[in-house]
Amino acid sequence: MEPEIPTLKQKWKRHYYERDFTVKPETAGLLAIVFFWYMVAIFALLEHFMLIPGVFKSSTIRFWITVSTWFMVIQLSVNWFLTARKRISQVQNKNDQQSQLAPTHTPPGWRNCPTCQIDIPPRAHHCSICGICVLKRDHHCFFTGTCVGFNNHRHYIVWLVYTSIASMFGVITSLLYLNDVIPLQSNFIDYIPVVAVWKWYQGTLSSALFFLVVHLYLFIGSFISVFPFSVWQVYITMNGQTSFEGKRSIKTYKTNMRQHLKIIFGPYWLLNFLVPLPVLPEGDGIYWDINPDYQNKYN
What we know:
By secondary structure, the chain is mostly helical. The chain has ten helices and six strands, in the order ααααββββββαααααα. The chain has helices at 8-18, 25-55, 59-83, 93-97, 153-181, 193-202, 207-238, 243-247, 257-265, 292-295; strands spanning 111-113, 118-120, 125-127, 132-134, 139-141, 146-148. Helix 2 runs antiparallel to helix 3 (59-83).
């Protein structure tokens, strides 16, 4: 007896139920990176050609606002590239060898990574997405496609801060521009996405204004997404923690705030927010000062 040939409907049904709908980390990372650079391009073009000329009437103010806007674009773009450097904080074999040197001076916490088959120092962790162990690993950032660790943490924080500022600036200038055309007080309903889509479809809202309304919400979404990360990173930096340690209230390496800032940003921490500095931080990401309150635990 010949086997029954499945119908097209049965094939589609089987394909649907057998398909894996889980979003792969590589796909999520690619989409996040594309979205970020799309928003950077839209922010720069909208501000330069539409929002700033339409909102600020004084040529002097308009000039300095334009300069400040491009300063933000340059800062967040350059710091993105400095953060996104692949394997910049990877645990090397030479780091593994140091676990066997001068054991009386080796800080506690060395352990073996079963995946990489190497000994990794304190605060280092394995990233299943990058496939490597990362010195002083904070977390894996999908928007940069790499892990935030010892050698790129400073650039990540600066990138977050300027992305937050740019997003909020985009919200403010978009609202100011739209308010001149669609007064917010009397036409608030026009700002609701569903209403804006319907009015654009009916032809009572121009494509340019509809485009701006859509990107107003994208700017708002970007700010809501990025700003909490900025606050969190400032908080754990001041406490001398990584995200892993902050979520678990680990304060083994907490000393003083000045030292914490120096570890990440170097001796001139404020300079990082004025000029992108493609230099590595001080230290090796292996040896750490222990919080005196925890020192007795390892003696």
